[in-house]
Amino acid sequence: MSLESDVQSARADLAAVFRWATRLGFHEGICNHFSLMVPGRDDLFLINAHGTHWSQITASSLMLLNSEGDIVEGEGRVEETALYIHWRVHRALPHARCVLHTHMPYATALTSLEDQRLHMINQNCVRFHDRIVYDDAYNGLALDNDEGDRIAAALGERDVMFMGNHGILVVGRSLANAWDDLYYLERACENQVLAMSTGLPLREIPTQLILATKNQILDDASYGERHLAAICEVLDAEEPAYKL
């Protein structure tokens, strides 16, 4: 494939994930943001424009920014917190080819607790064992380089950040893998919130079994690709305008 066709494919896939996130209730008004590095480039990334509802995002509506945070292509503007979180994380962390930030309800509910930790109590939780950073230093809106750089430094080599009193940040080497993690993270958090609501003790999985099960789950690197392909098939039939 040519670079141009790779970019168009990336645009369509990212638009699909926005649309699907809306169906799952992962969005919040016109806030929150997803970004994706252009295939084969380390200096360009795609991100949603401020003010466009996720249910209306299309491939062509996504904005293209460079490594200095400047708009290279697209109409509108990038919301300030989106710029300083995504731009700085992409710049600092090579493994963060895709950066997904949401205030999805169950995960955000956990970030609102004194103990925001995800407990290893079910199969969806164990895939995140030793992959999460818990950032308890809520500093309000991320409106400058310093806060974006602080978030990037705190995340380090991990894939998931629980942003205390705020929301979730998930990064990955591909959109498919990052999206798969985001989806299963919310499911894991939902299970924990429901389990905690009973008032009964949580039943933790033994450490040895956590490690073995995590390896089983993450061993199939193609699962995320199949997950994303399945979403695109549904949207191709029901909302084909996402590709425009």
Provide key terms for this protein.
single chain, 244 residues, alpha+beta, L-fuculose-1-phosphate Aldolase, 8 helices, 44% helix
Explain the layout of strands and helices:
Blueprint: H1 3-23, E1 33-37, E2 44-47, E3 63-66, E4 71-73, H2 80-92, E5 98-102, H3 105-111, H4 123-126, E6 132-135, H5 145-155, E7 160-163, E8 167-172, H6 175-197, H7 207-218, H8 223-238
Parallel strand pairs: 6-7
Antiparallel strand pairs: 1-2, 1-5, 2-3, 3-4, 5-8, 7-8
Helix pairs in contact: 1-8, 2-5, 3-6, 6-8
What would you say this structure looks like, in words?
This protein has a single domain (3-243), classed as 3-Layer(aba) Sandwich (L-fuculose-1-phosphate Aldolase), CATH 3.40.225.10. Helices cover 44% and strands 14% of the residues. It has helices at residues 3-23, 80-92, 105-111, 123-126, 145-155, 175-197, 207-218, 223-238; strands at 33-37, 44-47, 63-66, 71-73, 98-102, 132-135, 160-163, 167-172. An eight-stranded mixed sheet has the order 4-3-2-1-5-8-7-6, with helices on both faces. β3 and β4 form a beta hairpin. The radius of gyration is 18 Å and the shape is globular. The model has no long low-confidence stretch (mean pLDDT 95).
**Strand segment count:** 8
* Strand-pairing-aware structural class: alpha+beta
Name of the top-level CATH class: Alpha Beta
* Name of the CATH superfamily: Class II aldolase/adducin N-terminal domain
Separation, N- and C-terminal Cα atoms: 19 Å
Lateral arrangement of strands in the main beta sheet: 4-3-2-1-5-8-7-6
Helix content: 40-55%
Portion in strands:
5-15%
**Low-confidence stretches at least 5 residues in length (pLDDT < 50)?**
none
